[in-house]
Amino acid sequence: MSEHPIFDICVEPIELYKLLKISNLVGDGEAKTLISEGKILVNKKVEVQKRKKIRRGDVIGFDGKTIEVAYTPTKKSAEFISTVVSANNKSKIKKRAKSKARVAASETASKPSTERSKRKSESV
Question: Which residues contact residue 38 at a Cβ distance below 8 angstroms, ignoring those fewer than 6 apart?
């Protein structure tokens, strides 16, 4: 038997900031900030990676509270599913925006300037 309260996850691995949100160990919007400030412990070590992969058996600690992660693939709470889905959708939107920006930047860089070519032909 474990000395820590056990928190079941249905997806393994899970990113640290997502786990903190769904476990209610920290409030909404605080997870990423607390991780970057070094206030979250994973297996008794300070963790600063927001997307650190957490697996069964890991112990998460913050402000004297600790939880142990257990993996139960059949147990899916509505809150857990909505958190994972919304986080995945946000990351897809960000990836699309970045790829569009890269395409636009490469298109402008690959097009030769018409003004330069006109100037060169006039001076020759």
Answer: 46, 47, 48
